[in-house]
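Q: Got a minute? One more chain.
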Amino acid sequence: MQIINKNKIKTAKTPHKVDVRKLLSYKDATIVHIKLEPVEGLRMHITPVDVCFYILEGEGIVQIGKEKKSVQKDQLIFSPAKIPHRLSNESDAIFRFLVIKTPTPTEETKIL
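A: Always. Here it is, folded:
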């Protein structure tokens, strides 16, 4: 059994410049925890694999392609591979979510 404590994982340096922590990565999936402070957001980007976002806390905005929607705790959002997407926090509270990439990408994410 492997137990992973998010608080013991260092924040990764990414072009998004937000709190990103890779919890687990193996050939079939990568799971990442992201915390957005008020008014923070990810830059628009494209991943080479399918991605799901599971909202853990707060409310935010998800944009996939040209479609934008408000999301909140306990919702799961699917984003197909190679479609531009971003998440942002336009509230005055913390917005936390998991990113599940399947399979683990072998190509880099492209920042737009």
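A: The CA atoms of residues 44 and 86 lie 5 Å apart.
Q: Perfect, thanks.
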